[in-house]
Amino acid sequence: MEKNLLLKQVNIAQYQGESTANAASESFDELLTTARALVLGTVSLLHSVVLTIKVMGQPNISGWSFFS
Asked: Who's near 59: CB < 8 A, 6+ residues apart?
């Protein structure tokens, strides 16, 4: 009787451990996806800034005439 109860507790602990590991894995995958999106967005933004400066010429920061 006691052995069966112990086996059930071990099975429950294994199941909970697997569930926790799966949740952690999914969270890590979501974190990686978010990081990739952030990096790609940053690269895209920097690329746009570089192209804008190439087209419009070097900005005159002291006179704030970049958009005039």
From this structure: 53, 65, 66
